[in-house]
Amino acid sequence: MKSDNSASEPVEQLVDRVKAGPGGAMTDEVGVITGDLTIATTLQSDGRAAVAVQYTDADEWYTLTGSPTPLPHPDGLRQLHDTARAAVKAGGGAEVPT
After folding, report:
1. What predicted TM-score, i.e. pTM, was given to this entire model?
2. Which of these, 96, 93, 41, lies nearest to 67 by C-alpha position?
């Protein structure tokens, strides 16, 4: 996975670890997941962003419910990623913020 390590190259994917709050994060595939998670927000070729979560260091990725979603503005990948990460940290069956 590509991370946001260089300001000189275009950002296509942002990845962070987060501890899900009470009630966890809602996924399309398996419902709610909880605990130590990794969240990845990826810019798709159609201009939307996909948000996925996994148990940290696991192989399987799950779609965060509400993904993919339009970006709030053309340079909004970081904003969407940070907002989704905050939602997962808060828990409550977090979904991609609208």
Report:
1. 0.86
2. 96
Average of per-residue pLDDT values in the chain:
90
Is the pLDDT at 84 greater than 90, yes or no?
A: yes
Q: Which tokens is 59 given?
A: 């192989």
> Is 64:51 a contact under the CB 8 Å cutoff?
yes
CB 94: neighbour CB atoms within 10 A? 27
d(CA 54, CA 8) in angstroms, rounded, equals 28
CB atoms within 10 A of CB 67: 22
> Which of 39, 97, 33 lies closest to 71, judged by CA?
97
Copy the structure tokens of residue 68.
């993919």
Please list, in sequence order, all residues whose beta carbon lies within 8 angstroms of the beta carbon of residue 64, skipping any fewer than 6 positions away: 25, 26, 27, 39, 51, 52, 53, 84, 88, 94, 95, 96
Closest CA to 34 of 12, 15, 50, 56: 56
CB 23 within 8 A of CB 69: no
